[in-house]
Design goal:
Number of domains: 1
Strand content: 25-35%
Order of helices and strands: EHEEHE
Length: 79
């Protein structure tokens, strides 16, 4: 997944459609204690939907390096 490096970036790049048959996903990973927050985005072709499932399995057991808590994963979809 692609990391969003510029926190001041507008959401228009996420919303713009290129006429492709894709599912756009933004994953927001955060620590329950508020010490960590990271955003990733990616596009998955509808015909290869299993690629999206595999990418999300990476986040299943991620823990915070500071407090050891499981990180929260929030997903935003544009279908």
């Amino acid at each position: 997944m692609e990391t969003e490096l510029n926190n001041n970036a507008t959401d228009s790049s996420f919303i713009d459609s290129e006429g492709e048959d894709v599912i756009k996903v933004r994953a927001i990973i955060s620590c329950p204690s508020g010490d960590y927050k990271k955003k990733f985005k990616n596009k998955f072709p509808r015909k290869d939907l299993e690629l999206m499932v595999v990418a999300f399995k990476i986040f299943d057991f991620m823990t915070c390096s500071k407090c050891g808590e499981l990180l929260n994963l929030n997903l935003e979809f544009e279908i």
